[in-house]
Amino acid sequence: MRVAVYCGSALGVTEEYSVAVASLGRYFAEHQIDVVYGGGHVGLMGVIANATLEAGGNVIGVIPQHLQEKEIAHLALTELHLVADMHQRKAKMAELADAFVALPGGIGTLEEIFEVWTWAQLGLHNKPCAFYNVAGFYEPLFTMVKGMQDAGFIKQPYADMIIQADSPSQLLAAFDGYQSPRKKWQ
């Protein structure tokens, strides 16, 4: 299995994020799950890559040319794919992955996970999408999604598509048991 990991290029304000992300990387390696990620060595991206590699796992990076030129590419990966731009990065990561998970991060992290969640809703793929809720990081987002449901903008089956996991074992179990709902407009 290959999991696309979306996360911050920063570490965040608490070490709890780095500790949890490193633990997830080791867990993936121990369970023969390959990490597909943005290819950088900075922030939580670097943490997940290094922890997975140090535990003997495989890490596949996908980085746009303009970021590689800024010397933020992780050069010790199992594979590193160089692409032209951010659109190609997201498409390549989606192509390589069997599942998707958002770790703590910022605007880019949300944009990436929302895009694949939208693609799932539209029936463009049947892969699970998850939020790894380190220290309750995504609780405000879950509240917002519930508000969007209550306002009639997200139907229950599409809200239910999103996996909320607090531990590596819970995340993997949810991936293993995932069944895609019917597609929008069917």
UniProtKB/TrEMBL annotation:
Return the broad EC class. Answer: hydrolase
Q: Which UniProt keywords apply?
A: Cytokinin biosynthesis, Hydrolase
**BP terms from Gene Ontology:** cytokinin biosynthetic process
Record's catalysed reaction(s)? AMP + H2O = D-ribose 5-phosphate + adenine
Pfam annotation, one family: Lysine_decarbox
Enzyme Commission (EC) number: 3.2.2.n1
Listed name of the protein: Cytokinin riboside 5'-monophosphate phosphoribohydrolase
